[in-house]
Amino acid sequence: MSALASQVALVGNPNCGKTALFNRLTGSRQKVANYAGVTVERKAGVIRTPSGRQVQLLDLPGAYSLAATSPDEAITRDVCLGRMAGEARPDLLVCVADATNLRLHLRFVLEVRALGLPMILALNMCDAAEKRGIVVDRVRLEAELGVPVIETIAVRADGAAALMARIDSELPPLAPSGAPADLHAEVRRLLAVAVQVPRPTGEIDDAIDRWALHPVFGLALLAVVMFLIFQAVFSWSAPLQDGIDAGVSALADQLKAMLPDNTLRSLLVDGMLVGTGSVVVFLPQILLLFLFILVLEESGYLPRAAFLLDRLMVGAGLTGRSFIPLLSSFACAVPGIMAARTIQDPRDRLATILVAPLMTCSARLPVYALLIGAFIPKATVAGLFNLQGLVLFGLYVAGIVSALVVAYAMKLIRRDSTEHALLLELPSYRVPHVTDVLIGLWERASVFLKRVGGIILTLTVLLWFLSTFPAAPADFAGPAIDYSYAGRIGRAMEAVFAPIGFNWQICIALIPGLAAREVAVSSLATVYAVAATGDEAAGQLLPLIAAQWSLATALSLIVWYVFAPQCVSTLAVIRRETRSWKIVGIATVYLFALAYGASFLTFRIASAWT
């Protein structure tokens, strides 16, 4: 190895704390992208060693084996072997292992050692191992493995200092030692000579799991957790949303006062500010949802939820391993579909991909929040629960139930009655690290704001142009917007969507919403702002639709967004993951058919009752 390790890669089993260690080493000096030609996430950062050298650090996808059985494991294998196009082979591998679960993690350590690359073994979560009475003879383990062994605690500020110093040192290349004939036997030998484990699992873990994994109480606890999350998303975010909304309105008033009533003012206020501001106002709700998902993931609870739901999901044609990809789809269907790579069985993976768009992603949240705020009163149920939060929770449940129904229908169509056993690691419980959670929230906020400043702003300005031009002649009798391109397109589409209660403004909002669901809110805000007359305040979308739409129309639109694949990115990632346009076509047709049929029934039933 040269004096400068230009590229260091972190490898390890899932749940070993590898990403937490990566965050500790790189801090904010990291970026997320995709590997060339594939949609697997690539996290890279820059670290500065004690001697002042700059090193690129890669966080490779978690893998249980280099004998890859999933796309994620294949990426890790190919990068380590130098087979990945556009990726140089790492100069140094840092294999991260959970010190509380070496019985599982040492097998992968031996596979990585057999590659013959310079390597460091990072024993992470040493503090948790010490609390459980686990004693690891680091010196003996280092001698037996023939590689440096460093203890790390990723959640402490100085928990990676020793690792950083070791990376900084010059390591001699190892000769390929070859994999032992029986990795399991070698793991048992290493455990016998270098590790003392008083009990296979921690006392605290066992005590919590007696309740958290109980077939009745565990499911009840999971239901309560999810219910409280959606209550909090609506209740806690209100003050922040009100502040953002007030700021947007104040800025709009200032611009209107400063600029003459002309096309430029209309573009800045009605097009750009009102359109983007109507979406930014929902950032607090989106970040709150991500906060809870990150905390559940960091705490080690998510794999247990997957275990609890396995029996239910198997009955619907899925497995408990589908739970985490589907939960990820609550944030966005794109990473949810990508997370299905961890599912080894092709049948279960395809079923998960096809139902992932039915999960209520964060891009739907602005639409739901707008319609719930306009048509559901701010009231409490039983003096405790927020009615709007209950409705939002019901929409998420509707997405989950519909996904299970669709998966069951696919199982019947395939006539496949086989079941696949769930093999899942349950990591130790741990307190989520604040830094890792904040980094995750910052990444999500950055992605959202980039969308607002990029695709959403672009589409909003385009829609403003279509809503403004051509200008109506002086003798035109109707509203000026009816004479515009947008008005004409909306009126033409209205004939198709009238049976489900959509007016022409909604029809117009559906088109840019194909690029990103949340654009529908900014589109409605732009259309209504352009159509406003006199001194009507720009940006007051909620009271406008509350006054002009019927409850049946609002409910129909909500149901439409439960099912419709209003996101080209989702369809694109389905194509990339399945390499099949046929699957994309099937997903598009069945989702649109479900959306139209469900909205039709909802509109007709609601119209009869209101």
Characterize the structure shown:
The protein is of the alpha/beta class and about 600 residues long. The protein is about 60% helix and about 10% strand. It is built from 27 helices and eleven strands. The strands form three sheets. A seven-stranded mixed β-sheet has the order 2-3-4-1-5-6-8, sandwiched between helices. The chain has a two-stranded antiparallel ribbon with strand order 7-9. Strand 10 and strand 11 form a beta hairpin. The longest helix has about 35 residues, at about 435-470. The chain starts with 6 loop residues before the first strand and ends with a helix. The model is unreliable at about 1-5, about 35-40, about 170-175 and about 535-540 (pLDDT under 50).
Can you give keywords for this protein?
seven-stranded mixed sheet, alpha/beta, disordered N terminus, 610 residues, 27 helices, elongated
Topology:
Layout: E1 7-12, H1 18-26, E2 30-34, E3 41-48, E4 54-59, H2 71-81, E5 92-98, H3 102-113, E6 119-124, H4 126-131, E7 135-136, H5 138-145, E8 149-151, H6 161-168, H7 183-194, E9 195-196, H8 203-212, H9 217-235, H10 238-258, H11 263-280, H12 283-299, H13 302-315, H14 323-331, H15 333-339, H16 346-355, H17 365-375, E10 380-381, E11 385-386, H18 387-414, H19 434-468, H20 480-483, H21 485-497, H22 504-510, H23 519-531, H24 541-548, H25 551-563, H26 568-578, H27 581-609
Parallel strand pairs: 1-4, 1-5, 5-6, 6-8
Antiparallel strand pairs: 2-3, 3-4, 7-9, 10-11
Helix pairs in contact: 3-7, 9-12, 9-18, 10-11, 11-19, 11-23, 12-19, 14-15, 15-26, 16-18, 17-24, 17-25, 19-23, 21-22, 22-23, 25-27, 26-27
